[in-house]
Amino acid sequence: MARTDTFTRWSVIASGEGGGRIASQFFDRSENPGIDDRILVMNTNRADLRNTIDRMQGGMGTDRDEDEMMESHALEFGSQQGAGNFFPNGEACAREDLDRIVENIKEFGTTDAFMHVATLGGGTGNGSIPYVVDQFKNGLEDLNDNGASERWMDSVIHTAFGVWPYYYEQPQRHFNAVCGLSRLLRTGEGEQNGDMVLLAANSHLDEEENGNGRHYDSINDAIITAIDLMIGAGRETRSVIDVKDYVTIPSQMDAYHFTPAVATELNGNVYELEYMLDQAAENTYVPMDVGTTQAAYAIVRAPESMIENDEITEPDVYGAFRDWTGKHDINVAGQASLTPKRGRGSDIDVLLLLGGFDLNPLLEHSWDEFEMLGDSLAGQGRGEGDLSRAELDRIVDNLESYVERNAE
């Protein structure tokens, strides 16, 4: 088992109201492996930010007052009160206050990996998060004691979690989502942006498409469960699988978008591991054809007692994963890992991270709305942000080239 002083240290940056809702649910968990309290929620609207802090306080059951929480975990950025559901405004606000964002992040101390979180239908998170990822990876420089320029965060890995709007939502949100996905995947220069881009779709996780607060909480809880399983594998694992394993080969393949597929509380005394993997594969977080997967990782979390008694072993997990990929004729780059959870019993949790799949089943829900609005929105400034025709064409070209490479 990994030593507790060597596990990967994650930090979470969530922007916008939707991203803040997701981040606030981290505080509802009894454990946040590798994260602790390194969570920053950002918004251009102070009222929305205080609502997020209120949810965080409720999850923590803390006596810390609101002002202290705002100081430690929240940042109001930009001079606009909201982004007007137009992503260029969210990006403009982040550009305006990038120095303040960086200073807040430095308060977390050493970080090995970031999880950037945003809902893709809005303007604040969808506008700011792709820009922040790009700047953290490619745009930040510090001065060392000798005054020489040096890159900041050179070894830090940047993953992003983007949530697709409900299919029934207004066209503007689908326009934002298509642009946000492109910008998470590619920089303006056409280079890779996020090291790993994780995706979930509201309508796919809430098939009744209720869209009320209770169902948002259920969706967000599913997202947090997947992140917990993903991060926990790098903290306590019998084998070596961590965020660098998740990102290295998919980046080389230009197939670094992923979706989680999760099955929890499966009885290990009843079900075979391969069946558990099948159960997880039936619960992907976006619409997709599992057979188009190009990279896959399996994380199996079992009670410590089962592992210590050799009721489940690493070779068992490796073998089941190999058999599962073979059965589904998936020729993938990937690994499998066994990680413990506290307690006894026989309940086993399974996370599949499926990457490089055909994105068209997701995009088809939004592309018509995107094209319908593209001509009317390009060149129309709204507040501090603007979107030129050339910028929109670049967003389209970047996404189409990436999707074509990963299409069936």
Keywords:
Rossmann fold; Tubulin_FtsZ_GTPase; 19% strand; 408 residues; GTP binding; 60s Ribosomal Protein L30, Chain: A; 10-stranded mixed sheet; disordered N terminus; Tubulin/FtsZ GTPase domain-containing protein; 2 domains; two-stranded antiparallel sheet; Tubulin/FtsZ_GTPase_sf; 43% helix
Structure description:
This protein is α/β, with parallel strands linked by helices and 408 residues long. Helices cover 43% and strands 19% of the residues. It folds into 2 domains: 10-232, 3-Layer(aba) Sandwich (Rossmann fold), CATH 3.40.50; 260-357, Tubulin/FtsZ, C-terminal domain (60s Ribosomal Protein L30, Chain: A, 2-Layer Sandwich), CATH 3.30.1330.20. It is built from 16 helices and 12 strands. It has a 10-stranded mixed beta sheet with strand order 3-2-1-4-7-8-9-12-10-11, sandwiched between helices. Strands 5-6 form a two-stranded antiparallel ribbon. Helix 1 (16-24) links the parallel strand 1 (10-15) and strand 2 (39-43). The longest helix has 20 residues, at 213-232. The chain is globular and about 60 Å long. 49% of the residues are buried.
Concise account of the structure shown:
Residues 12-186 form the Tubulin/FtsZ GTPase domain. With 408 residues, the chain is an alpha/beta fold.
What is the secondary structure topology, with strand pairs?
Elements: E1 10-15, H1 16-24, E2 39-43, H2 46-60, H3 66-73, E3 74-76, H4 87-96, H5 98-106, E4 113-119, H6 124-138, E5 141-143, E6 149-151, E7 157-164, H7 171-185, E8 196-201, H8 202-205, H9 213-232, H10 243-253, E9 257-267, H11 273-281, E10 295-303, H12 304-308, H13 314-327, E11 333-341, E12 347-355, H14 360-363, H15 367-377, H16 389-406
Helix pairs in contact: 1-2, 2-3, 4-6, 6-7, 7-15, 7-16, 11-13
